[in-house]
Predict the structure.
Amino acid sequence: MTMDLLIPDKVHDETRQGEALILEPVGKQNGRKLYIESYGCAMNFSDSEIVASILAEKGFETTSDFNNADVIFINTCSIRENAEVRVRNRLKEFAGAKFRNPGMVVGVLGCMAERLKAKFLEEEKLVDVVVGPDAYRDLPNLIEQVDGGQRAVNVLLSREETYADISPVRLNSNGINAFVSIMRGCDNMCSFCVVPFTRGRERSRDAHSVVAECKDLFDKGYREVTLLGQNVDSYKWSGQLAEGAEPLAVGDEITVVNFANLLEMVALVSPDLRVRFSTSHPKDITDEVLHTIAQYENICNYIHLPVQSGNSRILDIMNRTYDRDWYINRIDAIRRIIPGCAISTDVITGFCTETDEEHNDTVSMMDYVKYDFAYMFKYSERPGTLAAKRYADDIPEEIKQKRLAQIVAKQQEYSFYRMQARIGKVEKVLIEGFSKKSDKDYCGRSDQNAMVIFPVSENYKPGQYVNVLVERTTSATLIGTIVE
Ligand code: SAH
Ligand code: SF4
Ligand code: F3S
């Protein structure tokens, strides 16, 4: 994949391959083993932790080997066609294990389950159970139905479900960074996007439960939380104060919490807890949010602000509800209020009817912003979306590919430019562990989300902050040494 070079972390990497999740058993075991693999965005990975937690309560133990599992779950993504193709191929690989162990339950969870619903059972004979993102509490019942010889489906979407009371089991965790879902669903109707159909209406999670989860993580030694939502800037929670609870923001009995308030509340958990968030929508990111980021040292100076296109006509038919000037105004506000803030983006090339000139507006937007990172995709038509209904997917594959290659090359230049600018600077790094290549080096991320590698010092452990003087860079990593 051409984009791999530019993927700085796990948060936005929708191309993530399936990863098996392992957890410690909690409570009494039932002797059955669960294998769960996740695809897609961070929200899906976070949901798998909720699923694992629901089943751990029922005594399931996890395994990293699907061949000796009693239940195989695959948590799927529908964002582009190739995400679905990958899942279909993976299901074929489970067929042998199911053949050897006919009692095995094979389940499809997540966005592809929601999109295809019962059709999945017709199309894939191997699959016993299909469960959408809002129905995970029903999993123990659904597994029972399958044990009783039926195939089962629950793809009901909910207007309320936020799993607020379920404390996720942290899977494959380094004990330092954690994802915390703050909302579910999406009410924007970007014309290319399948998410509103697979995840349902937008709803915000109880602010108290978000803060409580972050506090609990901090007490357990975690030092970084990433607040997750498809559009975090539209977070809005209003609710009754629990008896004895401190008021959260303005108001007495009824409290309304917006995203800026929530960021502040999480930042106040501890100055040693780093706060990140994803994804920000250009139409909703306010100066209030930017001032909150600027005010708290522990809210990281890094914003993922997907532009999708630099051309106003294309943005209009994408139904993004902002135009080029609005986006530039938001970039200027970030630069003014949070000097030095890193900015990354998502771009789609070859959207319906896009001309070469309109594509060049995307290129010139990249020249204007000089993004630190970008995730770049060819438009992939998704059944049922507004774009699929209204516009022909009329840009030939070679042109989509050519435009993609052009912006990937451009982004490589700007990523390199941004990395080079860090040489000679001192970065505050949260140590995450040993580097992938050598246990003589530590790795961790800077405030602006760059990966930093430096020699291990006995004085510091993972989970601590160190100052690192950057001496050189590779295409995606800063390399340096600890300075006191
Ligand atoms: N909520 C986030 C995006 C989530 S999907 C936001 O609004 O920015 C992540 C990215 O996948 C999108 O930003 C978009 O760039 C890309 N994407 C979504 N649908 C796509 C499609 N049909 N074809 C190609 N890329 C798509
Ligand atoms: Fe999709 Fe748009 Fe919602 Fe993002 S904001 S999830 S791109 S509909
Ligand atoms: Fe994919 Fe669903 Fe996330 S479609 S990107 S897993 S919300």
Observations:
- The domain at 426-483 is CATH 2.40.50.140 (OB fold (Dihydrolipoamide Acetyltransferase, E2P)).
- The chain has four domains: 16-154, 173-300, 334-421, 426-483.
- Residues 14, 79-80, 192-193, 230-231, 279, 281, 306, 308, 346, 348, 377, 379-380, 382 surround S-adenosyl-L-homocysteine (ligand 1) (CB under 6 Å).
- The CA atoms of residues 384 and 449 lie 36 Å apart.
